[in-house]
Amino acid sequence: MRCTLWMLAMLCLLLTPLPASAQELSCPELSDVQVNADDPESIVEICLATKKALAFLAGYNLVQKRTIRFEIIDTPIDSSGYKAYGSYDSRSDRIRLMSYPAIITGLENPQMYDEPFDHEHYRGAISHEVVHAVMQHNLTEKPISIGPQEYLAHATQLAVMPADRREALLKKLDVVPWESGDVISDVYMAIEPGKFAAKSYLHLTRMKDPLPFVQVLLNTKWFYVYVP
């Protein structure tokens, strides 16, 4: 669903300042999601995308248990040698995220899944980092490896997209869900992030009973997951 300018303006007015900081705001209906930013548009995007991500995760019995804090910045984030739009730090329970204007105007040819970066992909990037936070809130083993986290983060990233946009992307990526015996690894994700996301979304949403597999993700100690 696309927001009108009127809706964005109303949501900006509803953002509630917290006593601790003049720039730290809590989202309407999400008092445990706080955003530190000067850019009203980015704040609105964060609140909307976080709400959708949390709703999707709740369907898999994954719930937020602590305050999630966003810090909006204007520079790329160094993530293991490559430039990322966002990152989650489990030590502080804080998400660092580039503002949308900084991504569009400050980076050369920004993309997501081999598509030009736009507002829908920005909401997806926000949702992706929310998943990392919520998974940490629900861990049964620490530390959790990258593969299981990225499976759910990328699946959620596609889930929050409008259905028509998601179906067009899935058709273009042209992959099948993960199958029994497959290995879900961050190596494949690094090589084919779009296909990794599509396979994960299709696998998660087509399982008759996904909850046991979600528990597998939360219990995985290795860098990969075998699909049962």
Question: How would you describe what is shown here?
Answer:
- With 228 residues, the chain is α+β, with helices and mostly antiparallel strands.
- It has 2 domains: 26-54 and 65-137, Zincin-like, CATH 3.30.2010; 146-226, no CATH class.
- The protein contains 9 helices and 12 strands.
- The strands form 4 sheets. A 6-stranded mixed beta sheet has the order 1-2-3-4-8-7. It has a two-stranded antiparallel ribbon with strand order 5-6.
- A hairpin with a 2-residue loop joins β9 and β10 (115-116).
- The longest helix is centred in the N-terminal third of the chain and has 19 residues, at 40-58.
Describe the structure using short key phrases.
228 residues, alpha+beta, Zincin-like, 2 domains, six-stranded mixed β-sheet, two-stranded antiparallel ribbon, 9 helices
CATH level-two architecture of the largest domain: 2-Layer Sandwich
Tell me the distance between the termini.
Answer: 35 Å
Number of domains: 2
Look up the CATH topology of the largest domain. Zincin-like
Number of strands: 12
**Mean pLDDT across all residues, rounded?**
87
Broad CATH class of the largest domain: Alpha Beta
* Shape call: globular
Structural class by SSE content:
alpha+beta
The helicity comes to 40-55%
Strand arrangement within the widest β-sheet reads 1-2-3-4-8-7
Order of helices and strands: HEEEHEEEEEHEEHHHEHHHE
Taken as a percent bin, the fraction of beta residues is 15-25%
Residue stretches low in confidence (pLDDT < 50, at least 5 long) are 1-22
